[in-house]
Design a protein that fits this description.
By secondary structure, this protein is α+β, with helices and mostly antiparallel strands. The protein is built from four helices and four strands. Helix 3 packs antiparallel against helix 4.
Length: about 120
């Protein structure tokens, strides 16, 4: 059995990027989080203590996306995954997507760039 909680299309303004303009002007970042956890007990008891609080996942994404800048969105995604696995013992695995809608490629018609990472709890 694999149960999942997903938070989709969280939009944050941050200053990540390898280019000086990205660091100076900032830009929007769109983050998705999917966590795997056994949610059966939460479903049976209807108790918040038996599940993963969505607001805590959101706060991690917000803190990282709006926090100190990284050069790469890979690092943003990795930091989010690390913090979730470190703070949420019920989470067995986490998938993090970070999209950059305003890709700074001259003349581009690219809608966005995206990094998707999946990390599992180490036994």
């Amino acid at each position: 059995m694999t149960d999942r909680i997903r938070l989709n299309d969280m939009v944050f303004f941050g200053y990540h990027g390898a280019l000086p303009e990205e660091r100076a002007l900032g830009q929007r970042f769109v983050v998705d989080i999917e966590v795997e956890a056994d949610l059966q007990r939460a479903g049976e008891t209807d108790s918040l203590e038996e599940t993963i609080n969505y607001s805590e996942l959101y706060t991690v994404a917000e803190d990282v996306a709006m926090g100190p800048p990284f050069n790469l969105i890979e690092a943003v995604a990795q930091q989010i995954a690390n913090r979730i696995l470190g703070a949420q013992p019920k989470v067995e695995a986490v998938l993090v997507r970070v999209r950059k809608p305003g890709v700074p490629i001259p003349g581009s018609v690219l809608a966005s760039s995206e990094v998707c990472i999946e990390r599992r709890r180490q036994e």
